[in-house]
Amino acid sequence: MSDVDIKQTLLNYQKIMDQSSYPYINDVSAYEKLSKIGQGTFGEVFKARCKSTGRMVALKKILMENEKEGFPITALREVKMLEQLKHQNITDLIEVCSAKGSSSNTKDRTTFYLVFAFCEHDLAGLLSNQKVRMQLVHVKTMMKHLITGLNKLHRSRILHRDMKAANVLISKEGVLKLADFGLARPFVQRENSAAPRPLYTNRVVTLWYRPPELLLGDRQYGTKIDVWGAGCIMAEMWTRQPIMQGDTEQRQLQLISGLCGSICPQVWPNCVNMPLWGAMIAEPNTALPQRKPRVLRDRMNKIIKYDPSDAKLPASFQHGPDEEAMCLLEHLLSIDPDKRPTADEAEDDIWFFKEPFPRENVGDLMETIPNSQFEYTVGKGAHAGRGRHHNNQPRPHQQQRQQSNAIPAGQYRDTIF
Amino acid sequence: MSSIQEKRKLVEAKLQTMIRTIVKPKEPNGKAEPKKEEEEKFESDYKQKENPEIIPSSFGKRPIYSKVDINCDKWLMTLDEESRLKIDNPPSLADGLSKELEEEIRYLGCELIQQGAILLKLPQTAAATGQILFQRYYYQKSFVRYHFEHAVQACLLLASKIEEEPRRPREVYNVFHRLERLHRLQQSGIEINKETTHGMKPPVIDVNYINTKQHMINSERRILATLGFVVHVKHPHRLIVAYGYSLGITNSRPDILQKSWNYMNDGLRTDIFMRYKPETIACACIFLAARTVEDPLALPSSPFHWFEAFDASDRDVEAIALQLVNLYARRRFPNWPCIKAELETLRNAKNAEKAAEKAKEIAEKLEKMAPELEYSNGIESKKESPINEREKKSGADRSKDRRRKRSNERDGKGDRRDRDRDRGDREDRRKDDKRDKRKRSRSRSRDRKDKNRNRDVGKKYHRGSNSPPRYRR
């Protein structure tokens, strides 16, 4: 850079500084809202186009109407974490925008928007569309991306705490990205267990993807809760719907016992130390049925129905998940969190180094899908009934989900997170 | 390019010698390892940098697509001319605040944040974050325009969230309230001990609380917007420990580390965190501590100063050290009520100025709208004249007035007379406006009453003191 260049750039800065009232924050009017693509307790998500570059983005509005404690700490965390996390498999935060309140009574209220790079699909929407045919190599590539992203998160000492198919986005290029850090938080990693570990809030993760230790009231959980979610998503790749759809926490525990075998000290020595273990095991109609076999493998083979006459299906897919895949899945869905692999170990799993090798991306799969597949717009899954064109019966889970999401929003009820 | 290559070689050679010179005087056991790491680290850093040019600070740069820039380096204001200008002329000065008073308010605000953080049982990092946010904010906004009391509370609230130790606005309010009363006690010369503070109870929930909370939350949002969410601060605390370790003083001289740590915490009250990188500040703190500690320690200085290994120049280090030493020359604690009163007068002046400008605009509009009416009516045109005069005066002259006023304030006596005259002027102007506009909404007149009352508060204050109020002790 020569002196002239520097002077020129400085002049440009000066101009920009003079023009805008907030020199470090852009106004949201730089983007043109196209349509709404999601809604939840966290706020609204819009698809938008940048007026100057034409690039597609997703605008996530930070809701502040109900905040009695000032700016929500979850949003602060989200911004703080996403700015550290620049990774191929993690959603890309472009900037934070503001919009000045227009009406007179909210004159001083600025609304903030998080601007993300736009992704065409989310995994839940994709899986619910039966026309999307996935081969083993696609599943493997997507799992590889998912676990790589998760590993990056955990290496950066962040818990996602809301792993689910709807929070996994897939870009047009076929790259999978972890999204929605509304529940995420940094954690402290202490090797020496002498110091007491901090307590986190227990009411996290959408019920269907919630691991047994959270259901048993654990508040000193770690990265393994996300690994369980990854396991659920992996199974979902074949079953095409969430594998355990409980409507209450008790029901969810029963479903887990039914699929992964009963939760007992033989399988998980530490389970007796869980806060809710004593109360739950004593109940007459217990949520923890004992002596249930682990049927995950059989069930997976049964659930996955293929039409052998369908000649279009490639040979590798007709047999469903192969032996190594089942092995990894079994591992990811271990009852005992200590027996679950870390994301780092899972990334090096033998499955990813066997034929068919995971590819760079699943672009070829994406090319076969003409429209965006979002859970919200497709109208299935947790957002069913809230979508625009479908009147599917809302699943019993929906209510629960709202609850489980509502609690972290009012998190000041318990001050220790 | 060739010159860059040469420079690169020079730096490399310099570093090699540096590392060697530091290694030698230290005890060999346990020392060898960190050195090696550092060497490696440096090399890897070096390799990573494809482009060795000095990049000017990205201060004020707009975030560009796909190159998101939400890091704290954005807030270093040294490299480019414009940010230097900005740091020398904080926005408050434009509103008529004197440079000394501006510094005073900064000091007071930081002090309050520090004390508030202690009362809220926040970690020191949160206190540091809060103070740095406060400093950054008031390099963008004016003290006159935005009440620093609200910003102090908002900074505490925000810092507690950033450092993952969330506190409620209610708690912040309680603490701030207590600090305010403690401060009043201190100002009136009463010693603060258990007996004098015994009667202090947390404030009750009243209108005042609700208003303050609203202000706090609005202010918090404004801070976030103003800083563009660049609220994450890199603290030199850890760096001091790391540097101390590589200098081999962690175990032998813990007092130096403690002292440099203290220097850094005190340095939060100055603007060094706006100007220098945390690495440089850490070096300066150790540098100063090693000299001022009871048993001074000579850190390696030949052939190069030790801190050059950490990418700090002697010019910067000495400048920071000087600023830190100057900090301790301060004898008095800022007088809060005085500052408040001073800001209030400025605020009123500004409001009046704004009102006058608005009136002027309306007058102009009227003039344009109904020229016939105005010219046909003899009384109207008479009234027009004083406004026109003032219009002429308004631009350059008014600022001159303000300057004169400020200089007069130091003399004390002339000040009041001047202000009285000003006030008379202003009231005249108001009357004129009234006649011009013929009717005035009720809310306006209420406004005026409020302003008058506020001004009376200021007046009362001035009456109570013989010397200029700012330096009353």
TrEMBL record, chain A:
Keyword Lipid biosynthesis: no
Family: Belongs to the protein kinase superfamily. CMGC Ser/Thr protein kinase family. CDC2/CDKX subfamily.
Binding site for ATP: 60
Superkingdom per UniProt: Eukaryota
InterPro entries: CDK, Kinase-like_dom_sf, Prot_kinase_dom, Protein_kinase_ATP_BS, Ser/Thr_kinase_AS
Record GO cellular component, one term: nucleus
Keywords, comma-separated and alphabetical: ATP-binding, Kinase, Nucleotide-binding, Nucleus, Serine/threonine-protein kinase, Transferase
Span of domain Protein kinase: 31-352
Alphabetized GO MF terms: ATP binding; cyclin-dependent protein serine/threonine kinase activity; RNA polymerase II CTD heptapeptide repeat kinase activity
SMART domains cross-referenced by the UniProt entry: S_TKc
Subcellular localization: Nucleus
Biased composition (Basic residues): 383-392
Name of protein: Protein kinase domain-containing protein
Record has Metal-binding as a keyword: no
Chief location of this protein within or outside the cell: nucleus
Location of the region described as Disordered in the Swiss-Prot/TrEMBL record: 382-417
Xref: PROSITE patterns: PROTEIN_KINASE_ATP, PROTEIN_KINASE_DOM, PROTEIN_KINASE_ST
Annotated organism of origin: Caenorhabditis tropicalis
Bias (Low complexity): 393-403
From TrEMBL, chain B:
Basic residues biased stretches: 436-446
Domain Cyclin-like: 111-225, 238-326
InterPro entries for the chain: Cyclin-like_dom (IPR013763), Cyclin-like_sf (IPR036915), Cyclin/Ssn8 (IPR043198), Cyclin_N (IPR006671)
GO molecular function annotations of the record: cyclin-dependent protein serine/threonine kinase regulator activity
Residue stretches in coiled coil: 339-369
A Pfam entry, by short name: Cyclin_N
Compositional bias annotation for Basic and acidic residues: 24-52, 380-400, 408-435, 447-459
Signal peptide: none
Biological-process GO terms, alphabetical: regulation of transcription by RNA polymerase II
Keywords recorded for this protein, A-Z: Coiled coil, Cyclin
Highest rank taxon of the organism: Eukaryota
Segments for region (Disordered): 21-54, 374-473
Biased composition (Polar residues): 464-473
Family the entry assigns: Belongs to the cyclin family.
Protein's name in the database: CYCLIN domain-containing protein
Native organism: Caenorhabditis tropicalis
